[in-house]
Amino acid sequence: MTKSVRAKRAGYRCAECGHEVAKWFGRCPECQAWGTLEEVGVPRAALARVAAGAPSAPARRIDEVDVESARARQTGVPELDRVLGGGLVPGAVVLLAGEPGVGKSTLLLEVAFRWAARDGESGPALYVTGEESAGQVRLRAERMGTVHEAVYLAAESDLSALLGHVDEVKPGLLVVDSVQTMSSGQIDGTPGGVTQVRAVTAALVALAKERGLPVVLVGHVTKDGSVAGPRVLEHLVDVVLHFEGDKHSTLRLVRGMKNRFGPTDEVGCFEMVEAGIVGVPDPSGLFLNQRDTGVPGTAITVTVEGKRPLLGEVQALVSPSPLGNPRRAVSGLDSARAAMVLAVLERRGGLKLHDADVFTATVGGMKIVEPAADLALALAVASAARDFALPPDLVVLGEVGLAGEVRRVAGVRSRLAEAARLGFKRALVPRDSGKIPDGMRVKEVPDLASALMIAANA
Question: pTM for this one?
Answer without folding.
Answer: 0.78
